Amino acid sequence: MELNFGYVDGLPPEEHRKLAELKEIYDFHKSSNRTKRRYYNGKITLAEVNLGIALPNGFGRLEVGCAWGAKTVDVLAARSMFDGFVGQNGADADEMNDIIQRNHLIAEYTKACKEELKYGSAFAAVSGEPGNAKIRFYSPHSAAALWDGQKGRIGCGFAFEDARKDESDVTWSPEHVNFYTDTDIWQLDRTGGRWEATRFPHQFGCPLMVPLVWDATSDKPFGQSRLKEPVRRLIQGYVRTVANATIGLEFATSPQKYLLGVTDEQYDQLVDEKFKQYVGSVLLGTVNPETGEKPTFGQLPQGSIEPHVQMLRMLATQYSAATGLTVTDTGVINDANPTSSEAILAQSQSLILMAEQLNKSNGDALYQISQMALAIEYGTTPDELPDDEKSIVAHFKNPAMPSVAETADAAIKIASAREGFASTDIFLEMIGFDQADIRRIKAQEQRAKGEQILLEEFGNADNGEDVESVHQPNVENQPDSGGQDAGMGE
């Protein structure tokens, strides 16, 4: 892909300088990002893994499928399950949840998390207008940023707004780019070969762009890929070993045979019909009239692929140690494979700790994104947001991913020790219900309570009417007993 801004009409000189620096950063990482994407997709040729000893050079274009790169990224990303925002008092962050639904933030985060682990970082940009905040995620293939070490955040950055149609098209270049600075969002549009800038100022005091970073260090503030060089070397070893095993299996399927003491005519016939002689059940031969020798048939020992299998097991163990994946995730069976649920959980501890680290760093990034989005939604700045909006936190599901039986057992034990816990939504989540089921349960419980209240009220009303009819005499039907009483009194 070619990216050439040149001169942009309407862009001040200082912004020109920053934009040129961002382009240099983008170009510098473009080749390595392309390599990481290839290893994630498993597109590795033998030309880059061949040692030049066992594999012939003619096999350089042969591709061996390897899903280890994708597994390294996807298995960890699957344990980072963003589940929305929660307020300080435990209530739902309604305004932010509306923004989440409008921007499909949960689904977009899942995709951005994979890009983050694949390349080391991904970027989220916030824009929009009051009542319509927008959040978009970008991979390093379509965005770049400059780190400000003094402020400990992004100094500036850009992102392509038009989607790339074909990743293999190296001549493609964007026509719409957003350039983010501390005071403005610059919309850069290309018409023909000319770039024009449109300014959209803001009062946030920082670029409306936030990085999602994995495994950041002081030297690498934008993180490190899960597909680092040592990991890629192990993937190369896998590809090389599988290729050697495949070729060895071909030779084992058709073992080398020999036939000695044949005549010239027999030799020419055998050479012309090698495959027919190989699959034939009977091999005939006569005595050589020149030497008097009988033809001698033999077969060389078959090669074994067991050394290749042993090598794969060793590579799988090393890969498991380097990435935190279980040996089972690599698809190779050996003595290190766990045999019980406790052993599987023990092997997953490294991955669980990594997922917790990922959730912690991404939770901070999502908080910054939420504050910017809410400020745009309200037409203000993050500093002027209400306290209840400033106190929201990102919520993630348990990265250990326990079974429903284990979670339900824990929930029941907590409910027995903590009064009222069984009536909360968290209890229902722990015993296996999702939000849709919880809403249906709550609605039907409310409906049942309402029907019970109505039945009780109507029952009390009916009982009241019966009591009045029994204890209150009917005055109209009663005889006038005033004289009798007087007479009796007399």
Structural notes for this entry:
- A six-stranded mixed β-sheet has the order 1-9-8-7-6-5, with helices on one face. A three-stranded antiparallel β-sheet has the order 4-3-10.
- The chain is flat and about 120 Å long.
- With 490 residues, the chain is of the alpha+beta class.
Quaternary state reads single chain
Number of strands: 13
Helix content: 40-55%
Query: What average pLDDT do the residues reach?
Result: 80
Q: Specify the biggest β-sheet.
A: 6 strands, mixed
Q: How far do the termini sit from each other?
A: 125 Å
Order of helices and strands: EHHEHHEEEEEEEEHEHHEHHHHEHHHH
Write a brief structural summary.
With 490 residues, this protein is of the alpha+beta class.
Write the layout of secondary structure elements.
Blueprint lengths: L7 E2 L3 H29 L26 H11 L3 E5 L7 H10 L1 H15 L1 E9 L2 E7 L4 E6 L4 E8 L15 E5 L3 E8 L2 E8 L7 E5 L15 H25 L3 E4 L3 H9 L1 H6 L16 E4 L6 H18 L17 H7 L1 H30 L8 H4 L2 E4 L7 H14 L7 H6 L4 H37 L10 H8 L1
Helix pairs in contact: 2-4, 5-8
Task: Jot down its keywords.
alpha+beta; 6-stranded mixed sheet; 15% strand
